[in-house]
């Protein structure tokens, strides 16, 4: 069964890039179906408003629960996972992407402003799998770009989407660290040579060199990923 993805947003145009490259091919081949929904279609007032001032005071606006309830009800089933991108969520990671890739139905609720009235999460949590997820320790202007990142990371792990699944095996060999550096032709560029070992044809030496480079890079760039840290 293909993975179904529904995205609810006030900026449907943000999702045009999903027609390109690997994500476009995944949809064309029928492995994934992605539908984008405009939250404003689910408002009932003349101004199609989606936000209001926060109870308790404070800066900014909060998205009202009413249109969100209507929009989510229009797509939800008991098989759905509701994903709410927020900097206050649990950190999205490769294992989470793999879980999402093996789901039946994902609904992304893209908030703007100071987020969505928390009762939307409270309402759906006893009914379906609900995940508040952050893509990193920085604040975006809304959940749309975070949703694009999570869809791309997850959809490439749907079986059949990658033409060469060997690349997933290589990625997983580096975990929990980061990947080794890559080189291609020409062998010399602006006086810089490709590391000799990669031209040697000695597969065991190449594997050892790559594992070392992966450790060096992880130590330098991501010491937080080293065992015991
Ligand atoms: N919305 C705003 N910032 C975000 C982040 N870092 N992750 C997910 N959603 C967000």
UniProtKB/TrEMBL annotation:
Its main location: cytoplasm. GO terms for biological process: tRNA N1-guanine methylation. Coiled coil: none annotated. Residues 3-226 form the tRNA methyltransferase TRMD/TRM10-type domain. GO terms for cellular component: cytosol. InterPro entries: Alpha/beta_knot_MTases, tRNA_m1G_MeTrfase_C_sf, tRNA_m1G_MeTrfase_TrmD, tRNA_m1G_MTases_N, tRNA_MeTrfase_TRMD/TRM10. It is found in: Cytoplasm. It catalyses: guanosine(37) in tRNA + S-adenosyl-L-methionine = N(1)-methylguanosine(37) in tRNA + S-adenosyl-L-homocysteine + H(+). Keywords: Cytoplasm, Methyltransferase, S-adenosyl-L-methionine, Transferase, tRNA processing. Its EC number is 2.1.1.228. S-adenosyl-L-methionine binds at residues 111, 135-140. Pfam families: tRNA_m1G_MT (PF01746). One of its GO terms (molecular function) is tRNA (guanine(37)-N1)-methyltransferase activity. NCBIfam families: PRK00026.1, trmD. Homodimer. Specifically methylates guanosine-37 in various tRNAs. Belongs to the RNA methyltransferase TrmD family. This is tRNA (guanine-N(1)-)-methyltransferase. It comes from Pontimonas salivibrio. The lineage of its organism: Bacteria, Bacillati, Actinomycetota, Actinomycetes, Micrococcales.
């Amino acid at each position: 069964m293909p993975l179904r993805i529904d995205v609810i947003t006030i900026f449907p145009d943000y999702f045009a890039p999903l027609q390109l490259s690997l994500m476009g091919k995944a949809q064309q081949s029928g492995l994934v179906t992605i539908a984008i929904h405009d939250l404003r279609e689910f408002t009932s007032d003349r101004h199609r408003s989606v936000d209001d001032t926060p109870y308790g005071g404070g800066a900014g606006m909060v998205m009202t629960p009413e249109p969100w309830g209507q929009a989510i009800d229009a797509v939800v089933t008991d098989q759905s996972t509701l994903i709410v991108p927020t900097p206050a969520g649990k950190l999205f990671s490769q294992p989470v992407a793999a879980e999402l890739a093996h789901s039946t139905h994902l609904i992304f609720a893209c908030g703007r402003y100071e987020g969505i009235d928390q009762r939307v999460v409270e309402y759906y949590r006893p009914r379906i799998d609900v995940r508040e997820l952050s893509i990193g320790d920085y604040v975006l202007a809304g959940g749309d770009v975070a949703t694009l990142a999570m869809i791309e990371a997850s959809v490439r792990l749907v079986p059949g989407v990658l033409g060469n699944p060997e690349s997933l095996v290589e990625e997983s060999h580096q975990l929990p660290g980061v990947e080794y550096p890559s080189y291609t032709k020409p062998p010399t560029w602006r006086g810089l040579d490709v590391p000799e070992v990669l031209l040697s044809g000695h597969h065991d030496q190449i594997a050892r060199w790559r594992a070392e480079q992966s450790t060096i890079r992880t130590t330098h760039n991501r010491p937080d990923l080293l065992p015991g840290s």
